[in-house]
Design a protein that fits this description.
The chain is built from 19 helices and two strands. With 564 residues, it is mostly helical.
Length: 564
């Protein structure tokens, strides 16, 4: 079965895109592994209860800004504009634009940070607030300056990515993981062993600030090697004015997932005892409201988010980051046919990786969370609650990944209004579902709402994109999807059989902690091997370029097989 007529994307261009995506995947995987080690150390010494929830409130704010300004809306505007300027007016004009945007970003973020501190510091020292809320305000106030460093870092990473340099951008988050892990472990082991968690958590917050400085230096070096130099700037150029004018709608359109995540955290905090001094019932006028979630809800939610983001970060971000400069160039050239070809390849690769990741993460969620978090201040009950939420998040992995690709196509065409309208609808849907589902499902209701809104956003964007650029011949991927489904069924059956065998051995050996780690490793190895071998037997061409399992492919290196 063929996918359609021969397209204009050259094999060399295709190989470069695949190579870039695989490089980002490998580096991001390394970053995620360090992130999991960080989570293990932090949870062991600090737990995932109210104190960790307060920390997560503070840590999430700069990351929200990073995803909106650094890796989201601003980057999505910057890359096409920089690419177009470089093609039309030359490298110097494009670099002048880059310098101007960086300085503007620095000024705006510094002003936001200063305003935020003026609001937060009085709250953090307000004796009339509950201790938990003062701690949360203090965490936000301390880590808010991290916003400036991490957003500038992300913009420098986008500049490097345009020039095909991805390493520093993908490795920078490792510094935060290392700094946080050391800050959680060293005080507990050497000089603050008997200090309460509410005091030791401040060391971790300080470590986040320090890591921001290190990341800024790393990406500064990378951008310098790509040719960015200090020089003239202009803030009144048409490109800069256009970027500022479109930024507002872009923030909403590109940041639906991040806005939903922020709303999720607020609901988890205020609809649990964490935000009410441990009380399970709150009084609003004459009403007595029994809170639907238990203490530490935000901490459990953060664990679940970390789990489902593992494959999304490794595969989805990698594909979207690698193809975005190419999409921007093709859109600037009005080469819709080749753009559709690049998009089809991205969809095929994304579905080949994200569909098995969706099922696989649901299957291994409990063992993965147990292996990372169980022990120290984390109980089995904590693990069970986090697992329930993680499985609902994992059900939408495929949608989170495709959504990243779809949004970038609209922005490559300089269309920010369509994604904004879709995002507003998705955020409203998520908020409504949150307030409905937390009562029967607790924390898992928040996860289910986020997944449902992501699927809705993905489906609507795909329909609107089809109306804009015409059919993508996506129906001709049906043959590949049927074979992928067959491979996934075989993978899931084999992984569950391996899980049963490991559980039987654990009961005999009576080593549950070691058994979780061994069982997880066995399940992942069996699942990856079976899926790869089935993909090879079923002759799915995407296997040849897949990270890790691509070695199982019997296709010749560099062969551009487009069979469906």
């Amino acid at each position: 079965m063929a996918d359609g007529p021969h397209t204009s994307t050259s094999p060399a261009d295709h190989r470069r895109l695949i190579s870039s995506a695989n490089l980002i995947s490998r580096l991001t995987m390394a970053s995620r592994i360090f992130g999991l080690l960080r989570d293990k150390i932090c949870s062991y010494f600090l737990g995932v209860g109210t104190v960790w929830s307060a920390f997560w409130m503070g840590f999430q704010i700069p990351n929200l800004f990073r995803r909106i300004f650094g890796e989201g809306a601003l980057t999505a505007l910057f890359v096409p504009a920089y690419t177009t300027l470089q093609m039309q007016e030359g490298r110097e004009a494009a670099d002048q634009f880059a310098r101007s945007v960086l300085v503007l970003l620095l000024v705006v973020l510094s002003a936001i940070t200063a305003l935020g501190e003026c609001i937060l510091l009085p709250l953090a020292f307000n004796p009339h607030l509950l201790p938990e809320n003062r701690l949360a305000a203090g965490m936000i106030a301390l880590m808010l300056p991290y916003t400036v460093a991490i957003c500038i870092t992300a913009m420098l990473g986008a500049f490097s990515a345009v020039h095909q340099k991805f390493a520093a951008q993908s490795l920078a988050p490792i510094t935060t993981s290392v700094f946080m892990a050391l800050a959680a472990a060293l005080p507990a082991l050497y000089f603050a062993a008997h200090a309460p968690l509410t005091e030791r958590i401040w060391w971790v917050a300080l470590a986040v600030l320090a890591s921001g400085v290190v990341q800024l230096l790393m990406l500064g070096v990378s951008a310098h090697r790509c040719g960015l130099r200090w020089g003239s700037m202009t803030f009144a150029s048409p490109a800069v004015r256009s970027l500022i004018r479109r930024m507002g709608v872009m923030i909403v359109g590109f940041s639906a997932v991040q806005i939903n995540t922020f709303l999720d955290s607020q609901i988890a905090w205020w609809f649990s005892p964490d935000g009410h001094n441990g009380a399970r019932t709150v009084h609003v006028g004459s009403l007595h409201i029994h809170l639907p979630m238990l203490a530490g809800a935000l901490g459990k939610l953060s664990v679940a988010q970390r789990i489902y983001m593992l494959p999304v970060g490794v595969f989805g971000v990698a594909i979207a980051t690698a193809i975005f400069p190419r999409l921007s160039k093709l859109a600037a050239e009005s080469n819709v046919d080749e753009l559709k070809d690049v998009l089809r390849r991205a969809f095929r690769r994304g579905l080949f990786l994200s569909l098995p990741a969706t099922i696989g993460m649901i299957l291994i969620a409990h063992k993965l969370i147990s292996a990372i978090y169980l022990g120290g201040h984390v109980s089995q009950a904590d693990v069970n609650r986090a697992t329930h939420a993680a499985r609902w998040f994992c059900a939408g992995i495929w949608a989170f990944e495709l959504q990243m690709i779809l949004i970038r196509v609209f922005y490559a065409f300089h269309d920010s209004h369509t994604p904004m309208k879709v995002a507003v609808a998705a955020v409203v849907l998520n908020l409504i579902l949150n307030l409905l589902l937390i009562w029967p499902l607790g924390v898992a209701g928040i996860a289910a709402s986020t997944t449902a809104s992501a699927i809705f956003q993905c489906a609507l964007l795909a329909w609107l994109l089809r109306r804009r650029i015409g059919p993508l011949q996506a129906a001709q991927m049906g043959g590949m999807l049927v074979r992928v489904a067959a491979a996934i069924i075989s993978m899931a059956a084999s992984a569950m059989a391996a899980d049963w065998a490991c559980n039987r051995w654990v009961r005999i050996a009576s080593h549950p902690i070691v058994g979780n780690i061994i069982g997880l490793a066995v399940m992942v190895a069996v699942a990856a091997a079976v899926y790869g071998l089935c993909a090879r037997w079923l002759d799915i061409p995407e296997l040849a370029h897949a990270p890790i399992i691509g070695r199982l492919s019997r296709q010749r290196s560099g062969k551009d097989n487009t069979r469906g």
